[in-house]
Amino acid sequence: MATNHTSIPYQNKEKFYKELHLELGGILEKEWFVNLANTSALLKQHLPEINWVGFYLNRNNELLLASFQGLPACTRIAFGKGVCGTAAQTRQTQLVKDVDQFPGHIVCDSASRSEIVIPLILQGRVLGVLDIDAPILGRFDSEDQKGLESVVQIVLEKTEWPERF
Q1: CA-to-CA distance for 14 and 86, rounded, in angstroms?
Q2: Which of 21, 46, 66, 125 makes an SS bond possible with 55, Cβ 3.0 to 4.6 Å?
Q3: pTM value?
Q4: Residue 118: CB partners within 8 Å, gap ≥ 6?
Q5: Across-strand partners of 121?
Q6: Distance of CA 160 to CAs 58, 130, 149, Å?
Q7: Which residues contact 131 (CB under 8 A, 6 or more apart)?
Q8: Across-strand partners of 68?
């Protein structure tokens, strides 16, 4: 398994996410497609032990694959289906320690063992989700959830979003 190149030490997660947020804030532009691409790349570069990271965008209550880093992925996911669709429908982060235990999990990469999905919600509208997969069980915890939810907030605040995708 390939390891990620990272210049931010991950052992202290609070410090890691603080530094990650600063770096993210420094690279974001106004355009949504630029920000999603750079955010995916930044997370893939710095988060250890992940095998996929990317965004799905809401198009008529269906999640459509957008910018990502990793193997090719499922292109469309209905709201309410799998981890991503559940996050979009419930508007709540899904922290899944073992994807095989998640009812209706959609397998895009059989190497993925755990997952976290954070919905992108702006002014009551679900824009999409940030999805991160890992090849190990229990990869993500509450500190990761808090840090990654902040990543999503930074992206939401620094981006000019179109009315429709």
Answers
A1: 27
A2: 66
A3: 0.93
A4: 87, 93, 129, 130, 145, 148, 149, 151, 152
A5: 126
A6: 16, 17, 19
A7: 52, 53, 54, 55, 56, 83, 84, 115, 116, 117
A8: 54
Spatial neighbors of 78 by CB under 8 A, at least 6 apart, are: 61, 62, 63, 85
What is the per-residue pLDDT across 82-118, written as a single tens digit (0 to 9) for each? 999 999 999 999 999 999 898 877 777 778 999 999 9
Comparison of pLDDT for 141 and 103, the residue scoring more: 141
Cα–Cα dist 21/139, whole Å: 20
Sequence letter at residue 144: D
Identify the residue whose tokens are 């106004």.
30
Residues 6+ apart with CB under 8 A from 22: none
Annotate the chain with DSSP letters as a single string: -PPPP-SS--SSHHHHHHHHHHHHHHH--SBHHHHHHHHHHHHHHHSSS-SEEEEEEESSSEEEEEEEEES---SEEETTSHHHHHHHHHTS-EEES-GGGSTT---S-TT--EEEEEEEEETTEEEEEEEEEESSTT---HHHHHHHHHHHHHHHHH-B--S--
Contact 82, 104 (CB under 8 A): yes
